[in-house]
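@channel sequence for tomorrow's demo:
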Amino acid sequence: MSLRLHSLSNGFRIVTESMPGLKSASCGLWVGAGGRHETAAQNGIAHFLEHMAFKGTATRSALQIAEEIEDVGGYINAYTSREMTAYYARCLTPDVPRALDVISDIVLNPVFHKADIETERHVILQEIGQAADTPDDIIFDWLHEVSYPGQPFGRTILGPEEKVSKFREQDLRGFTAAHYGPDRMILSAAGGVDHDAIVAQAEAIFGGLAPVGERPADAARFVGGERREVKDLEQVHFALSFEAPGYRDDAVYTAQVWSMAMGGGMSSRLFQKIREERGLCYTIYAQSAAYDDTGQITIYAGTSAEEIAELTRLTVEEMKRAAGDMTAAEVDRAKAQLKAGLLMGLESPSSRAERNARLLSIWGRVPDLDEAVAKIDAVTVPGLRAYGGGLLAPKAALALYGPVAGAPGVEEILKGLAA
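structure tokens (generated this afternoon):
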């Protein structure tokens, strides 16, 4: 592998990673503008803007955008997160210049025709409706809202219908002008790529753009709370979260190992105790998410109305027990799973490009994989037990959806953890 970095004079950054033997590549633009950069009135506009990028530019129609990539067998897409918006493509190596040209065009030159805005508004409202009809999707939006209430970081990415229904061309252009500057963009490419050719193309496209300056987002404050929505469903959907370290804190690796040991696979504690031994659910897992200045440990399960109280009790008991008796074998297994997942995932050029862009946005550099592996290896049994113990008397957030009348509340859960 050969990773190279370059910055233009206006702050635009380029990171490429050549993967010998590959005849394809993944490339894209990662923009430091996501849900947490919106005002309350703008909630959902970053995602709306992502959709509008594909509706046409000054020189390409929506169909031409799709055809230009798909004519050569490529794939183009985008996503919006709380911290970034990404526009990316996968293609064969000779078509990388074409992919970068299309991506840069849709990001820099969207036309925002009124008719297209109305069409895409309808599409997004359908997307919001679909999410609301998908319990194991919507519950995580609710969980985030009660984790970070009243904050940009806690708001849904899609935005509420009443906000999305009001966005106009001037709103989209205003958000673009404020956040879509070269100093807030990263061009990342991996696979069969030519670094010097990509830098030359980027200089020609982005080199003359003026920077927009720093747009710091409000700091995230984990508060916690509860949201309980009664619905006539077959199952109770249960999501419980605790604050975890952000990417900038080395304790993030301890949080990742803890969540893997607790609920990251079939051998994990929650899976074995609650599904395998007791048969209380089909799905249960724990995961750790990290952001710029915060993170979350989340436990999710789906179970019946009759079993939710017992599932919750066992979850609390397993958390308490792990704080005192997490074994070296469990820790070693969790570390092996994390390292294997990291290394196997990065055999894909798409994963490489995304990881490099994300790490460059956080650190201003791309740490070597060996550095991440070493930090995972440095997690110890005493450190993991201490971390687990720290979760026993914290703030917590709880989201419940379905026939939830008999489900314990967040205060009851916290009392059980602290007992």
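heads up for whoever presents: Residues 13 and 186 are 5 Å apart (CA to CA).
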